[in-house]
Amino acid sequence: MNNSKKSAFQTPKFQQNADEKRFKERVIGERAGSTAENPWGKREQQRSGQGNEKRDKNRPHFATDKEQTKRRDNRQSVRENTEPRKFQITEETRETTKGEKVKVWLKKASSSENPKEKKTGPLSPRAPEKIKKNRAEEMKIYGEGACLSLFSQRPESIVRVWATVEMAHKIGEIFSYLATHKKVYHVVDAQELALVSGSEHHGGICMLVKKARPFTLTGYLTVPHQRDCLVLLDGVHNAHNIAGILRTCAFYGVKGVVIDDPELLNSPATMRVAEGGAEYVRVLQTDDVCHALNQLREAGYQIIHTSIDKQAEGFAKVRLKNKAVFVLSESSTEALIEKDDTVTNLSFTNPLHKNGLNVAVQAGVLLARWVEL
Q1: Which one of 30, 62, 150, 252 is most buried, by most CB atoms within 10 A?
Q2: What is the pTM for the complete model shown?
């Protein structure tokens, strides 16, 4: 009864053994290539013979112990260099200029890791020429007043911008301009901005910009001027004094400053203290101050020097002409004075026997008088 219901797919045990035996004999024969008419045997011979000969000829199939050690060291170094840095994300609530409260997430390096300090300094002589050229043509400026004035006067010179979260709410127009013109900007914290700008007095914003190209005094004098006022700086190297003079010139509408070293006006500290005044004053470059004064005399400018000499004429009695040049220096200018020049004393009640006013303050007194004409 049970034998009649046996499945037709079940193979008797003696037949299974016979099939396995025949299969093993066929496989062994194919691999060994026992028959000439068996193509599989020939292919297996080619694989096992010619392939091994070619592999042995070029390189060993298995790497030696020395090669394995070298590969393992390379993988370890790549893993260490590409290991992701751990960051700590903090959530803060900030208030915008409109009084709205928004949530801000700041990403900072974890305290367990020591952040790398950014090193600045002179470039190596082997640095690429493009980097050297950019270093010579670009500069960083910081401070809200300086950056906003630069954006209003020459936005095309901006290369990159860094700003804090608080400042980012105020300069949305700058960010929109940069995004439209595919320029880069970063929103960072105050600590990172101090590293980027190199100063703690960054005011929440820093820009990498192209330097403004100076004009030449010779080219400036080729254009006739009926009424004009210039300031000539001789031996003034203090960045804060130069910034004060630029800010005063911009305030009183003086359009030109004559100097023999224009790079003194491209200092980040000078731009910050000037509060944007540098963007409204032309830099007139000259190779020699004495030669520049002779050019100005020939162009009909009145040359005015300040002095603490009691014999000099009081500034209240000086008759100013429509075209005047005020010479400002941190030292004596007696070597620059000629016969037709005007030498004036700003105060006869000065108790300081060897010192007068700061050059930046002198610029304010002189220019305030000139604009009254």
Answers
A1: 150
A2: 0.63
